[in-house]
Specification:
Elements lengths: L1 H19 L8 E2 L7 E5 L7 H5 L1 H11 L3 E5 L5 H4 L2 E6 L11 H11 L5 E5 L8 H13 L4 E3 L3 E4 L9 E4 L1 E2 L6 H4 L5 E4 L4 E4 L8 E2 L9 E6 L4 E4 L18 E9 L5 E6 L14 E2 L2 E2 L2 H17 L2 E5 L7 H5 L1 H11 L3 E5 L5 H4 L4 E4 L11 H11 L5 E5 L8 H13 L4 E3 L3 E4 L9 E4 L1 E2 L6 H4 L5 E4 L4 E4 L8 E2 L9 E6 L4 E4 L18 E9 L5 E6 L14 E2 L2 E2 L2 H17 L2 E2 L9 H24 L1
Parallel strand pairs: 2-3, 2-4, 4-5, 5-16, 19-20, 19-21, 21-22, 22-33
Antiparallel strand pairs: 1-36, 6-11, 7-14, 8-10, 9-13, 11-12, 13-15, 15-16, 17-18, 23-28, 24-31, 25-27, 26-30, 28-29, 30-32, 32-33, 34-35
Helix pairs in contact: 1-16
Length: about 625
């Protein structure tokens, strides 16, 4: 009985903790991308090595497959057929002087890449002992696609950073540029077996306008890995290096990334001084001659980044429906475009309406609140947006406004778009004012509440106030249709819908027309929802929709405004972080998973006290026995 009593005491003490463990979304496990982006690996030019193919190459394929990519090994050369469904192409350093690329193969690669939204990795090698043909062939491919980076006609050795021989070089320097931080995260050493270094061409042509990438910046080109300070150039043939000198030592560039490449500036190119797969010993090697490295991490992260940028870089901003304001376009809108460009996105302003042509290459579409009762969306435009979004893996942001003084058409039109894509969030037919949280007037509202949900923490990080000029609030539809199954998002959860920003407690609803609000009441005050994000949206559940009670760009004064009437805000941070998150999630959806097991500090203290009490009880019982 005493044992049972003790067990009951323990169960009682721990029961509050056991039943209080909750589940919160967090970015943990990736889901396969429904598009199944295909990456072709060239094996038709001597890259195959049986032991490597069974080990490092198989491991690389497994990792990429687990990340949602579809790997195809091309054994019969490069042509339109093998490249037809590919988003990515990996070309390792070739081997065998008779295994060079044909003119037809070079044309096929060039045509494929210049279709747009493609990722290309070209590996190279040293030119030691008659192997100049390897880099010559790599350069043929790179020149055909207008690359700004090429392999030098040299060999690199390193007497200190190596795997038991100076030609088994370990590149140990990584970029500090925040743009490529996710590529080099956790990377401290990558095998570059018998490698070369890289040089830049400011004009994008082999051998012309040559620069050393260690000390010269080329727009859209980012060095990723560097050799160590003791890396030394050896030139063993009659072809001199172009950007360096024989015998020179230093932290030469080993691997680079170029974005906005190709004829339509939507491609991504990686060039490396060694081969990322196949070959004698590839960059994916994680241990060699007892030296531990992080090559597999680097290669997989670089591929994922390149594929994402290539397949998801284009964002269309609608300017066809009265969103344009000259002063805003020259200031806040230009600043937003610059920030998005710096983040690797390509911005296109759509002045002639929304149609299949303007949306063909877009991953994202921004629709600000329209202006002008004759500027509404046509049925053809609504269909074009719906068809585009339901292709899957798309990001859509729809802004709205208040319906004050005859402006009901703004939200009516926003709702037409949202209803067409099956959104679960819509703008209310009201106006929001705030006598306290504003920019010198109650209608210049500052939304000052951010979500505490860990899933969207990266979106609201650093955000404390966003201008919502003459705004509305949002309501939810549990059935995903305008005006039906309506709920207030402040107190009702809809699966996959996350409020991002809230108005302050003093925000007040004013309804100035005959159309009543659906989820709220005229004159009601409270922390209404100002902006939401919905994931797993669209017909195949891979889309992302953001809805906001004001316009994120253009308009009278957009959400990106960081200072207005002397009030400092963080709107630009918020808008750019929302877009970055949404574009990333649309391309590579993942499933929110339970947070790691954690103990509340106060609960831990209570458990500790309980344990002490239990020990005292046990001691007393034992003594009495």
């Amino acid at each position: 009985m005493r044992k049972i009593a003790a067990m009951l005491i323990v169960a009682t003490l721990f029961a509050p903790y056991i039943i209080s463990v909750g589940v919160v979304p967090t970015k943990v496990s990736a889901l396969p991308d429904p598009i199944k982006p295909t990456i072709v690996f060239d094996m038709g030019h001597g890259q195959y090595t049986d032991t490597i193919f069974a080990a490092e190459d198989a491991w690389l394929e497994n990792n990429l497959t687990a990340m949602g990519f579809n790997v195809i090994w091309a054994w019969g050369g490069l042509n339109d057929t093998i490249l037809e469904d590919a988003t990515g192409l990996m070309i390792g350093g070739i081997y065998g002087s008779t295994n060079g690329f044909t003119a037809a193969e070079i044309t096929a690669v060039s045509d494929w890449f210049n279709e747009g939204n493609k990722f290309l990795w070209v590996g190279s090698d040293s030119d030691f002992s008659g192997y100049a043909y390897i880099n010559n062939n790599a350069s043929l491919i790179l020149d055909a696609v207008g690359s700004h980076v090429y392999p030098e006609a040299i060999s690199i050795s390193d007497a200190y950073s190596n795997c038991n021989a100076s030609y088994r070089v370990v590149a140990n320097g990584t970029s500090t540029d925040p743009f490529v931080a996710s590529i080099v995260d956790g990377v401290d050493g990558v095998l570059m077996h018998g490698p070369t270094s890289l040089y830049g061409s400011t004009s994008g042509a082999e051998g012309t306008d040559v620069v050393a990438l260690e000390n010269t910046t080329i727009e859209n080109v980012y060095p990723l890995m560097y050799y160590g300070a003791s890396a030394t150039i050896t030139d063993s043939d009659l072809v001199p290096p172009l950007a360096h000198n024989d015998g020179e030592s230093g932290k030469f560039v080993a691997t680079s990334l170029e974005v906005m490449a190709g004829t339509d500036e939507t491609g991504a190119i990686i060039v490396s001084g060694a081969s990322p797969y196949g070959d004698y010993q590839p960059m994916t090697t994680n241990e060699y001659y007892g030296v531990a490295m992080t090559g597999m991490t680097f290669v997989t992260q670089a591929i994922a980044f390149g594929m994402e940028k290539a397949a998801g870089s284009l964002i269309v901003f609608d300017m066809s429906h009265g969103q344009y304001t000259d002063t805003i376009f020259a200031a806040e809108d230009a600043w937003l475009e610059n920030n998005l460009t710096d983040a690797g996105f390509q911005v296109v302003w759509a002045w002639g309406g929304l149609n299949d042509t303007i949306l063909a290459r877009a991953r994202g579409l921004m629709i600000g609140g329209i202006y002008g009762s004759t500027n509404g969306f046509t049925a053809a435009e609504i269909t074009a947006v719906s068809d585009w979004f339901n292709e899957g893996n798309k990001f859509l942001w729809v802004g709205s406004d208040s319906d004050f003084s005859g402006y009901a058409y703004i939200n009516n039109n926003a709702s037409l778009i949202l209803d067409a894509v099956g959104s679960h969030v819509y703008p209310e037919a009201i106006s929001i004012s705030d006598a306290y949280s504003n920019c010198n007037a109650s209608y210049r509202v500052v939304a000052n509440g951010t979500s505490t949900d860990p899933f969207v923490a990266s979106i609201v990080d650093g955000v404390d106030g966003v201008l919502m000029h003459g705004p509305t609030s949002l309501y939810g539809s549990t059935s995903g249709a305008e005006g039906t199954d309506v709920v207030a998002l402040e107190n009702t959860t809809i699966e996959n819908v996350y409020p991002l920003m809230y108005y302050g407690a003093s925000a007040t609803i004013t309804d100035s027309d005959l159309v009543p609000p659906l989820a709220h009441n005229d004159g009601e005050s409270g922390k209404f929802v100002a902006t939401t994000i919905e994931i797993n949206a669209g017909e195949d559940g891979t889309g992302v929709i953001v809805v906001s009670g004001a316009s994120p760009y253009g308009d009278y004064q957009p959400m990106t405004t960081n200072e207005y009437y002397g009030v400092a805000m963080t709107g630009m941070t918020f808008v750019t972080q929302v877009i970055g998150f949404g574009m990333d999630f649309a391309m590579f959806p993942y499933e929110p998973t339970p947070a790691p097991f954690a103990i509340d500090p106060m609960l831990l203290l209570a458990i500790g006290v309980g344990v002490v009490v239990l020990i005292i009880i046990v001691v007393v019982v034992v003594k009495r026995k």
